[in-house]
Each structure stands twice: as structure tokens, then as C-alpha cells.
Specification:
The protein has 16 helices and 17 strands. The chain is α+β, with helices and mostly antiparallel strands. It binds 2-acetamido-2-deoxy-beta-D-glucopyranose (9 copies). Residues 48-500 form the Amidase domain.
Length: 551
Amino acid sequence: MAFPNRTVLLSILGSIASLANGCSYEPREATIASTHHSLYTGLTTCREVVSSFLSRIETLNNHTNAILTLNPHALTIADSMDIRLQSNNASGFGPLFCIPTLLKDNWDTIEMPTTGANLYLNASQPTIDAPATAALKKAGAIIIGKANLHELALEGLTVSSLGGQTINPYDYTRTPGGSSGGTGAAVAASFAVWGTGTDTVNSLRSPASANSLFSCRPTRGLISRAGIIPISYTQDAIGPIARSVEDVATALTVLASVGYDEDDNTTALVPAGSRGVDYTVGLTQGSLKGIRFGLIEGFFNRTASPETTPVNEAMANITAKLWAAGATIVPITDSLYNATAIAKLDTQRYEYREEMNTYLQRPSLSGPRPKTLDELYATPPGKFLVIPSEYEYVNTALVSSTSNTSYATVKTGIQNLTLALQETFTAHNLDAMIYPEQKNLVVPIGSPSQSGRNGILAALTGSPVVTVPVGFSPATETAPKGVPIGMEILGRAWTEELLLQLAWGVQGLGRVRKTPEWAEREVEVRGFEEAVPGVTPKKDNIPEAYPVGVL
Ligand SMILES: *[C@@H]1O[C@H](CO)[C@@H](O)[C@H](O)[C@H]1NC(C)=O
Ligand SMILES: *[C@@H]1O[C@H](CO)[C@@H](O)[C@H](O)[C@H]1NC(C)=O
Ligand SMILES: *[C@@H]1O[C@H](CO)[C@@H](O)[C@H](O)[C@H]1NC(C)=O
Ligand SMILES: *[C@@H]1O[C@H](CO)[C@@H](O)[C@H](O)[C@H]1NC(C)=O
Ligand SMILES: *[C@@H]1O[C@H](CO)[C@@H](O)[C@H](O)[C@H]1NC(C)=O
Ligand SMILES: *[C@@H]1O[C@H](CO)[C@@H](O)[C@H](O)[C@H]1NC(C)=O
Ligand SMILES: *[C@@H]1O[C@H](CO)[C@@H](O)[C@H](O)[C@H]1NC(C)=O
Ligand SMILES: *[C@@H]1O[C@H](CO)[C@@H](O)[C@H](O)[C@H]1NC(C)=O
Ligand SMILES: *[C@@H]1O[C@H](CO)[C@@H](O)[C@H](O)[C@H]1NC(C)=O
């Protein structure tokens, strides 16, 4: 990309901007394109862009408790980018140049510890970046901080011993989905332009759905997972969460640019035609006309209730709009598509201990920390939340491995499921499958689990999914704009380009996304002459049902 006459523009517009008294950049609902427009026309500086998000976090984080840590070097990095802007060195500007980005706190980055939001990992400090983090930095992204997650990404409630409970920005009585719920809440509130997540069963899609955002869980193998706290070799995936399809496409392009990584052998699966793809190029060239969507009937709860009816209505609304746009909706009624039944093939229990031991022993980690999963959950000094639904799982994972005889049966079951999914695509000549991410609204704070989610199909089969906002429940006293509802668009392997085009088409059917009410507030940009402030997560809001303790 070339930006002609930047020096000239900068000198003229820069002086106008400095007269404009702080109103030169709008962080609320900002996109990569709007941020670059402000920067490259000299309306703002990178320091001001970063400061505007830090100011919002400092002032507003107490509404949602989404942020765990801020990067103390964020403004120094911004200043170095301002020097490059002034020297008009366009060759060095990557697609994420000066884009404030939040990492889920299970991604390694050298500026901050990687805690998994667990008290016992509070000082686990990476000395090298995860390859995916390195790719973001190379593309110019500024990692401004790290977001809370459901502790160790093991559930979808986004409550943790280190970060407390993250609160849904649209309804303070509800969870933000999860496990990447800190990222979801933060991006919804415009605490950054976008953020990252991980997904072992639902975790990139549930927070997108519950926060009126877009996300992409890529095909298994597209992006290296090295340097990211793992759960499952078979199911783990990483990806972006953003406020627009365009920004998901840009971020996905950068993340996938890591390519083959010997530290994650699934990256060898990427076929030649799917390597080095720029997902932004054909984004706007697709059409919904003539597209055949399979609608998975088994992924709905048709029992009418305040928790389910809005989801069913939002899906009815979107399918009507898809028909009107020239697409065909094919009902898929095969009893195979039962998320509860499919979940019996979940591999996490077998793979977790081995994967976690390997991660905790990475030579690139420094700082005191447990070196094995057993040690992490040992008595004392293991410290973690005890959530009844979750710790049955942990107990099993502690005594299981990939040498359990039933592991092989589960793997064969996954192969069968993957073939059956291909048969459904082929028999009905489908381009994609659609269904609600969650059969009901995102659950209230204090619930035993994030029930009703449908993410397991893509997680087991390694299929790509783009999640899109499709509606809101009716407004209530605690949810002045209603609770967000999201839809998954699932494709065959390596069809991210098509799925993003379809999501772009859905985005164009009418704006669904809304800003949370309190996040509409304009926050004065602070100077930050000295240093980036710290954040102190609220821990006094952990529901009583989840004590911090030991097994
Ligand atoms: C957040 O903090 C501000 C200023 O201290 C306070 O006015 C506001 O009530 C707090 N909001 C919440 C939701 O805690
Ligand atoms: C331009 O930026 C690139 C990337 O940061 C750097 O490698 C290069 O040396 C810079 N060129 C000049 C002339 O400053
Ligand atoms: C981690 O927690 C321990 C125990 O509470 C505390 O002593 C230590 O200072 C913490 N370390 C960091 C880096 O936060
Ligand atoms: C791929 O890597 C996993 C661990 O990350 C290892 O268990 C497995 O044996 C490797 N597979 C091959 C074929 O090398
Ligand atoms: C379906 O929704 C109803 C009403 O919310 C709920 O009682 C029931 O448990 C749900 N069924 C399933 C299978 O989740
Ligand atoms: C889905 O599977 C679960 C568990 O196998 C079963 O209890 C339930 O009845 C099935 N639901 C339907 C609609 O068949
Ligand atoms: C794996 O085997 C161990 C030992 O027999 C057993 O306790 C555990 O429950 C098994 N794990 C699974 C997931 O079946
Ligand atoms: C997988 O499919 C094969 C062939 O249809 C069948 O024999 C086998 O029992 C299935 N295995 C599982 C675990 O579903
Ligand atoms: C469905 O569409 C109608 C008409 O536009 C709208 O009033 C309603 O809020 C939508 N429902 C949901 C759950 O988004």
C-alpha cells in the first residue's frame, strides 16, 4: 500500500490536529481502516491512538473486569511508530501498523506473564513470543495488554482465581461467554481495536456470540498453536475476535502468515493453495445469491422460554433475510447432529495432562511456576477456582492419557463424524452450515456451566467457522439493549475465504451490532507522561459457588 505525500499531509494536518484539542481520533467502534485513516492523514498520532484505549480501560474496566494486565511498553512502541510515520517509511508499515490489540492471557508475549488467569501461574514469564504473537508484532500490532479468560480456558463462564468474574457488558447479571470472554467483553467495549482468543470447544465463538462480535475459528492446522497454553492437541485452535468481518479477515491473514511451524506439526496439513492467503482480497467479491446453507435443526432448543425464544427468533429473522438475498436454506434433520451426543467424542480429558506438561516445561518460560499439571493442582500451593462441573473433568484428566484404550475409539469416532459431515455437505450440495452458537442466551453469573453451546462439531472435525452477530433478546432492566445472539457459519476445511465472504454478506444485510450502553461514553484521553497505569482486576466478585481452593 502506498500513501502518497504523507510527509506533506502530516505537516499540514498534524498542525491542524494539534489545534483540534484532543478530538482527533475516535476509539469507540474504531476499525483497522478507521485507525489507519486517522494515522495516515495525520489527524492523530500512534501515541494518541494507544492512549485513547488505555484511557478507556483505566476509566471503564470496572464495569466489566475484562483486563488482567497492561503492557508497560505500549507507549514506547507507539512513539517508535510515530517516528516511522514522520519519516514516511511506508515500507515498514504492516497491515496492523499501530493497531491496539489485546491478547487472551494464554498467549505468550515477552512483555507480560502468561497466567491462564490462574493464581499459581501469576509469575510464569515467557522469554520468547509465541509464533502467532511474533507475527502480529511483525505486522505492526501493538499489544496493549492481556484479557481475562475462564481459568486455563477450561469452561465458558470467564471467572478465574487471578482475574475474578468478567461481566457481560450488555447485561451485568450475565457472563460474557468464554473461555475468551475477557477479549469478547473488552472488544465489545472498545478497549482495543480487536483481540485474540483460543478455542478448544467453543471459546472463540461463545464470546463473539455473547458480545455482538465476529470471530474466526480456523481450520485445524492453519495457525501454529505453539507458545499458547494448551488443552487438546486434536481440538485447540487460535484466532481473532473483532467488531467487523474486515478486521477478522486482516487479523486472520496475519496470524496464518506464520505458516509451517515445526513446534506444531498440524501446520503441515495446510494444502499449497491455502498457504499465504490474503483473506481481505476477495472479501467483498462474494455473494449470498445462489449459496446453499444447511440449517442444523438438532442445534436448536425449540422449547419456548425467555432464554431460548429470542435465539430461535433471531435465527428465523436471519434465515428469512438470507432467502430474500437469494440464498437457499436446506433443513438438516439428521439425528447425528446432536451436540450432547457428539460431545462424547471430546478428546480433552485424554490429551490435557500431556499437552500441559509439555507447555509448562518449555525452555522459553522463566519465573517460578508448577512444572506439571499434577503440581498445578497439588495441595498446597495449587490455587484455582473449584467449579463443580469443571473439576470432575480435571480429576479425570489427571489420571488419563493418550494411552487409555478408549482414546483410540474416540479418535475413530471423530474420523467417522468428519466423514459423515462431508457426506451431509455433498448429499445436499451445501456451501456452508448455519446454526446458533448457543441454543439459549448466554448464562447468568453463578451458573454451573455455559450450557447449550454447539461448538463441538467444528472442534472435533477441525472445520472452520466464522461467527456473526444476528440479533438481541428484548431489552430488560439489567440489559438495556438486550442480550446479543450469534450464529456460526461452518464450512469444509480450508474454506475460510468463502466463509468470510458469506459473513461479509450477512454483515451487509443490516447492522446488528450495538455498543454496550455504558461503553458509549466518551472518555477524555489522558496524557500518560510517565508510564502506563497498572490494572487491578476485581476478585471480590467471584460467585460464592466457586471457592478458591484445592482439590
Ligand atoms: C466504576 O468506577 C466509577 C468511578 O470510580 C464509579 O463511578 C462507577 O460507579 C463504577 N462502576 C461500576 C459498574 O462499578
Ligand atoms: C523502514 O522501516 C523498516 C521496518 O521497520 C526498516 O527495516 C528500515 O530500515 C526503515 N528504513 C528507513 C529508511 O528508515
Ligand atoms: C505471584 O503471587 C505470589 C503469591 O501471592 C506473590 O508473592 C508474587 O509477588 C506474585 N508475582 C507476580 C509476578 O505477580
Ligand atoms: C505431532 O506432535 C505431537 C505433539 O505435539 C506428537 O504427539 C505427535 O507424535 C506428532 N506427530 C507426528 C506424526 O510427528
Ligand atoms: C431447552 O430449554 C428449556 C427452556 O429454557 C430448558 O428448560 C431445557 O433444559 C432446555 N433443553 C435442553 C436439552 O437443553
Ligand atoms: C441427544 O443426545 C443425548 C445424549 O446422547 C440424548 O439424551 C438426547 O435425547 C438426544 N436428543 C435428541 C433430540 O435426540
Ligand atoms: C483413563 O484410564 C484411567 C485409568 O484406568 C481412568 O481412571 C480414566 O478415567 C480414563 N480416562 C478416560 C477419559 O476414560
Ligand atoms: C466408525 O465407522 C466404522 C465403519 O462404519 C464402524 O465400524 C465403527 O464402529 C465406527 N466407530 C466409531 C467409534 O464410531
Ligand atoms: C427479529 O426481527 C424483528 C423485526 O425486525 C425485530 O423486531 C426483532 O427484534 C428480531 N428478533 C431478534 C431476536 O433479534
